[in-house]
Design goal:
Layout lengths: L7 E6 L5 H14 L4 E5 L5 H11 L8 H25 L3 E5 L2 H11 L4 H12 L6 E6 L2 H8 L13 H17 L4 E5 L4 H23 L1
Bound molecules: thymidine-5'-phosphate.
Length: 216
C-alpha cells in the first residue's frame, strides 16, 4: 500500500486573534476525523528552531537588522521543513502549523518594509515550491487585537511595535489572501469565540471530506 502524503494546514493572524484556542479547536476537529496530526509552530518547531525563536522574540537583540530577522525566520523554517514538516507529511501525517511563510511576507515584508521579491527568493530556495494546502487567516481590526493581547504577559520583540506596524501586517495578510484565494480562507476573528469556531468548522470539515475523497 502506498502512503498518501499528509496535508499541511497553517493558521495566521495578527496579535490577539485567538490563534492558540482556535488552533486547539482545529486540532480537535482533525483528530475527531481520525487524522494523525503533528502540531507545531513558527518560528520554532525543532530544537534549533526554538533557539532561533528565542533570539527573534527575546529582547537581547532589540536592534536586529531586518534582513537578519528575515534570514533567521527562514533558517528556522529550513530546519523545520527538513526535520519535522516534510518527514511527517511523507509519512501521511497532517501538519498543523501556527504561522508559516505568510508571516514573513506580513511581518518582514509589510511590517519591516523588506522587498517581497527578496522574500520570494528565500521562499523558493527553502521551500522548493512547497506551500500549505490550506491557510486560515484569523483577521480582526488591529486595535481590537491589541486590546485583547494587552491583557497578557510581558510583550515580546514584535509585540512592542506601534499600531502602524500592525496595520501594515494586517493589510499584507489580506492582500496575500486576495492573491491566493484557493489556499486562503479569511475568518472573522473579531466576533465571540463560538462564532469564530463556527466559521472554522465551515471551512475545515469540507476540506477534510474533500481530501479523504482525493485519497480514495
Ligand atoms: P506568535 O506566533 O507566538 O504570535 O509569535 C511569533 C512572532 O513572530 C509573531 O509576532 C510574528 C512573528 N513572525 C514573523 O515576524 N515572521 C515569521 O515568518 C514568523 C513565522 C513569525
Amino acid at each position: 500500500m502506498t502512503i498518501k502524503r499528509g496535508r499541511f494546514i497553517t493558521v495566521e493572524g495578527g496579535e490577539g486573534a485567538g490563534k492558540s484556542s482556535n488552533l486547539a479547536f482545529i486540532r480537535d476537529l482533525l483528530e475527531q476525523s481520525g487524522i494523525e496530526v503533528v502540531f507545531t509552530r513558527e518560528p520554532g518547531g525543532t530544537a534549533l528552531g526554538e533557539d532561533i525563536r528565542d533570539l527573534l522574540l527575546g529582547h537581547k537583540h532589540t536592534g536586529m537588522a531586518s534582513d537578519t530577522e528575515l534570514l533567521l525566520m527562514f533558517a528556522a523554517r529550513a530546519e523545520h521543513l527538513a526535520r519535522l514538516i516534510m518527514p511527517a507529511l511523507n509519512e501521511g501525517k497532517w501538519v498543523l502549523c501556527d504561522r508559516f511563510t505568510d508571516a514573513s511576507y506580513a511581518y518582514q515584508g509589510g511590517g519591516r518594509g523588506i522587498d517581497i521579491n527578496r522574500i520570494k527568493q528565500l521562499e523558493d530556495w527553502v521551500q522548493k515550491g512547497m506551500v500549505p494546502d490550506l491557510t486560515l487567516l484569523l483577521d480582526l481590526p488591529v486595535q481590537t487585537g491589541l486590546d485583547r493581547a494587552g491583557q497578557r504577559s510581558e510583550p515580546d520583540r514584535f509585540e512592542v511595535e506601534q499600531n502602524a506596524f500592525f496595520e501594515r501586517v494586517r493589510a499584507t495578510y489580506l492582500q496575500l489572501a486576495e492573491q491566493n484565494p484557493s489556499r486562503f480562507r479569511i475568518i472573522d476573528a473579531a466576533v465571540p469565540l463560538p462564532q469564530v469556531q463556527e466559521q472554522i468548522e465551515i471551512v475545515v470539515r469540507p476540506f477534510i471530506q474533500a481530501q479523504s475523497k482525493a485519497d480514495e
